[in-house]
Specification:
The structure holds 2 protein chains of 2 kinds. Chain A is built from 23 helices and 12 strands. Chain A is of the alpha/beta class. Among the domains of chain A are: 263 residues, 3-Layer(aba) Sandwich (Rossmann fold); 66 residues, no CATH class. Chain A is globular. Chain B is built from 6 helices and 12 strands. In chain B, the strands form 3 sheets. In chain B, strands 1-12-7-4-2-3 form a 6-stranded parallel β-sheet. A 4-stranded mixed β-sheet of chain B has the order 8-5-6-9. Chain B is globular and about 70 Å long. Chain B is an alpha/beta fold. Chain B has a domain of 153 residues: Rossmann fold, CATH 3.40.50. The chains are: A alpha/beta, B alpha/beta. At the A-B interface, α2, α3, α4, β1 and α8 of A face α1, α5, α6, β9 and β10 of B.
Amino acid sequence: MHDAALAFHRRIDAALADGALRRALALTTGRLARGRTDAFAAMPDAEACRTEARRIRAHTIAHLDRYLDEFTRAAEARGGRIHWAETAADATRIVTDIARRHGITLAVKSKSMVTEEIELNAALEQAGVRVVETDLGEFVVQLAADRPSHIIAPIVHLSRGDVARLFQEKLGAGQDDVADIPAMTAFARRTLRSEFLDAGMGISGVNLAVAETGSLCIVTNEGNGRLTTSLPRLHVAILGLERIVPTAADLAVVLTLLARSATGQALSVYTNVITGPRRRGPGAGPEAGGEPDGPEELHIVIVDNGRSRLLGGELAEILYCVRCGACLNACPVYRHIGGHAYGSVYPGPVGSVVTPGLMGLDDWSEVAQASSLCGACRDVCPVRIDLPHLLLKLREQAARRKLAPLWLRLAMPLYSAVATRPALYRRLGSIAAWLARAVERDGWIRQLPGPFAAWSASRDFPAPAAQSFVQQHEARGVVTGAAS
Amino acid sequence: MTASARDRIMASVRDGLLRAVLPDATADRAGRWEPPAQVPPREVLVDQFSRTLAALTGHVHRAATATEAADIVIGVAAAHGAASCLSWGDEHLGCPGLLSLLAARGLARVTYEMSGDSVERGRTAHDVGRVDLGLTGAHAALADSGAIVLVCGPGRGRLASLLPPIHVAIVSERRMWPALPALVQAEPGLLDAGSNVVVVAGPSRTADIEMTLTHGVHGPKHVHVILVP
């Protein structure tokens, strides 16, 4: 195994050995998945809505150049300033330049996966800007110098005790401040409120942008997304270039599914739509007829960072994704190992496609193996992305580029040679069954010898029956295709 | 520099589109799905809205007149010890005369105008941040989510529904819609009506710590909706 794969397996082993993590994962993913199931059951036309949402996303991606063009024109017409970033480094440079130009020392930030992807916080800190994460979970992650472990529930992996300790150690919280979860939440509100009021810059991601009006939709439950985009003088929005829908009506369709898929809510608490910066009246002061608040400047940074390359290939369907996180909660692998084990900002089934898609297969071929291809992710995806198919495509690409383990690259052609020759298959099958019965204990095979040891370490098989299926079938006197 | 980055990204997107594998992509414009054509009677929607918002720990009141609405607002303010309110202009509350009724009963309105200057702005934000109650109208209400739609703009500041721990919103029962898609299809220009349009479904909440639902993390902890005719 190469280094990346070994590191991946070490992280998986560590996650599986962590009992507290596994209990927390079971609780969180179970509750979110049930919430989703109930929300869809209560929606009579859910399947028609999913079909339409898929069509909207597919259509938009298929005409992405046109919609990007329409979006940027509309946003600029309403006073937004557009910046284009080919790489993560370009994106962070653009944002730090804006901060420097305006003498920003404090920025508040609402939760955003793309800013994690481009590692924006580190770049801003280096430029002398203090960045404060304001989503409660992300705030805790930042205090702990940790990483989020779930797209929408970033601190699945931490307990209330962990959070209490962090608040006491890093922020000097008293006993009363951490007495229970509501007290800790109130403490975070007080701490973060003053940051909001003082910050010169608000940084957000974008859930979906609307091409026809140049609008940005930012969804939160806490309200930090609204504070981030309303209080500071500057709002900088980071937009992954694929996160566009054509019209407001299309946005409404996708929103109908987004929160239901994520948490089971009909809508998130705050569905915040930003269209340009604050609209000034013709004069000055409260009587001038302008808006009394909102940012003076809106900067939209459109980030490519591998997306357009991903578009030109067999994985392009992953760009339909609206980042609801439903596939994480449904995935039997994610539910056991959690987000950190994947080693990427984007975990779970979607992450196993997005990460190698954006960062390249060389270091990330192994995550596509972390799936049983059961299809639960595809079943819950609001836009029905065929994730198992994309994971198979990645495995195929890895094999073609000789990134798959050597034994697998040798074994698969051998298997294919045997499986396409029925007589040989049956003869070897009966030998294998005879060998398997030799290592069976109490009707189960728990450990295979030699080169199969690692593979069988996490797999138990029932011992093969004394007679093969075909033999049993023939014994019943049924004429089978194979026998004729 | 920026222009060329744009050109390179667009070229890369166009190049990608030549080879992209995009199942179910269609050439025509999306938007064929229609929300259910049959809209339930208003009473049914109002009932659904009230139950849904209550389940989100929001409170629903009904007021036939401005005086009744004022009673409700004063009651909420008294319960929380609020002495002043951050309010939209009277003409935007959908309840004419309400602000003067409230002023007469001792609930003063705080007005503000954010400055373009950072320091000035911070000072205003801290002052406005001390107000206990926010009062707004609402453009529409959505029955399926218990949400209200706020179109912020002149005389309709964002902060009234955002900074105070209590948010009281007034919405006409005639503005009740079954769900967001129906409203947006009927009013396609809605999103562009101001720099900020927000759909609010109940009080601010989080479940980040151990999946324990907690209210009032950043936005208002208490949301009251007054339905008027």
